[in-house]
Amino acid sequence: MKRRNLLWYSLLFTAGCTTGINSTSNNSEQLPITTPKNLKFAVTDISGIENLQRDFGSFKTILEEILGLKIEFFPVKNPIAAAPALLSREVDIVFAGPSEYLILNARAKAIPIIAIERISYHSIIVVPANSQIKLLSQLKGKTIAMRKIGSTSGHIAPTKILIDAGLNPQTDFKTVMLDDKGVQALKKGEVDAWATASDRYKNILESEGLSEKNFSIIFTSKLLPNDVFVASNQLPSSFIEDMRSRMINNQDKLIQSLLTAKANQKYKGSKLITANDTDYNMIREVYQKIGQGNFL
Description:
globular, about 35% helix, single chain, about 300 residues, 5-stranded mixed beta sheet, 10 helices, 11 strands, D-Maltodextrin-Binding Protein, domain 2, alpha/beta, 2 domains
């Protein structure tokens, strides 16, 4: 299912590869001797310097103060492009979504620095209020609108929900990727259900001029895996450990700096926590189930 899209990203990665002890958070303390002179920072789902500056400019400034290092933005053309950039040391740290983290970990051996835990990050499956569908099992043979290939909350997690309900993602239902227009397709009866993120749900309805009373949420997932900051494995391990410590100790400043951008309001109430690779096994499982295990 959707093999061509994932293989295309894999080809993009291949092409890109052919190109080119915890310390205190007090900035007066010296960083490890092996500290790099500067860092290049990318965000997997943001392209263009202007967009990076708009959404992460304040964060970059605070992180520079915390680390005592100059940080430069490194724009990537697509989420997969961060992997070859890490391998070639064109970029040092990357902020990635859960699915992108797995690609960076598998293809570039990226090292997780710290994760950002969102308090209301769930996947939900929605049907019209007057729908006869009340149970996930009733979605067999139906068409479901999802967001986009690889989206944790809008593709991977909803697929896991349906797998756990006993449905085969390759034979038991049809998936159409409609981004945030899935709600309009649901309203028009073009699809039977719509999968989205709980923290996007109200915003999407508001932007589309729709009311919650017209819809029914038939399932809400458990809290989803976190977005994560990763580092190049070519950075000294002592430096990565020190950076992790400083980010945790200064997390209030870092979270507040993210919230200065409209696009980052989803991180309101979030906290920085240790990133554990096993937290992302759910996503690995789904890729296996949809026949894309080799992608990771």
